[in-house]
Structure formats: structure tokens, C-alpha cells
Amino acid sequence: QVQMVESGGGLVQAGGSLRLSCTTSALDLSDFAMGWFRQAPGKEREGVSCISHSGRDKYYVDSVKGRFTSSKDYAKNTLYLQMNSLKPEDTAMYYCAIAMTEGSGGYCYLLATEGGMDYWGKGTLVTISS
């Protein structure tokens, strides 16, 4: 069983920044695709980003392009989501997930939008005040 633990959420004002972290157990992140998802109250879960095993292929939902950046620290087995220029509509519970596949090419897009992630964290809450 793979464990995923998110951290870094909190309350910030609009225009501010946060960096989310997701640490995994007993896995080599260079073998697997990972993603960030969010769910706002009353809304369906949304795929925010996906990063392939190598980090070369990335997907971002249109609403966060240019503001959010996903990255991996292979030495720390950690996935990050740097979130800048935050907006009230970014308020949500953020979850990280990992897929037992490389996610290269267009496959990361499918993982983020169609499903296929295998393990999930319990989430970290991000609240943006206006």
C-alpha cells in the first residue's frame, strides 16, 4: 500500500502564494506519473495538474496555467505544487495522487481528466480570501 501525505495548505489572501507538498512512501518517483486534484464545496473533483515519471511531460488545467507549477524532488520522494497569484476560486481541498504508469506523452492529460490514478492522499485545504 502506497501512502501519500499532503501538506502546505492554509489561508491566504488573493494574489498570494502557497506551495503544496506531497510525500510518498517506498516508491521511486522517476517510475510513475503523479498529479494534483482539487474539489471545491459543491463541485466535482477537478484534475489540476499531472507530471510524468521523468517530469518532462506536464498537464495543467486551463484555469491555473501560468500560475501553478508542478515539480518533483526525486531525492525527497516529494511532489510539489507551487501556486502563485491565487484567486478565491482556487479555494478547495487539494489531493495528490500517483499512477502506476509513466504518464509520458499525452497520457498525463488522460490521467488528469479521465481518471486512472491508483493511490490518493487525504488532502490539504486551501482557502483564498478576497
Sum up the structure in keywords.
seven-stranded mixed beta sheet; mainly beta; 130 residues; globular
Structural notes for this entry:
The protein is 5% helix and 45% strand. The protein has one helix at 107-113; strands spanning 4-7, 10-13, 18-24, 33-39, 46-51, 58-60, 68-73, 78-83, 92-99, 119-120, 124-129. The longest helix has 7 residues, at 107-113. The mean pLDDT is 94.
In whole angstroms, how far apart are the ends? 40 Å
Q: Based on helices, strands and strand pairing, what is the structural class?
A: mainly beta
**Annotation field: number of helices:** 1
Strand content: over 45%
Overall pLDDT score: 94
The radius of gyration computed from the alpha-carbon positions, rounded to a whole number of angstroms, is 13 Å
Number of strands: 11
Q: Largest sheet, if any?
A: 7 strands, mixed
Low-confidence stretches: none
Please give the share of residues in helix.
Answer: under 10%
Helix and strand element order? EEEEEEEEEHEE
**Shape, per Cα inertia axes:** globular
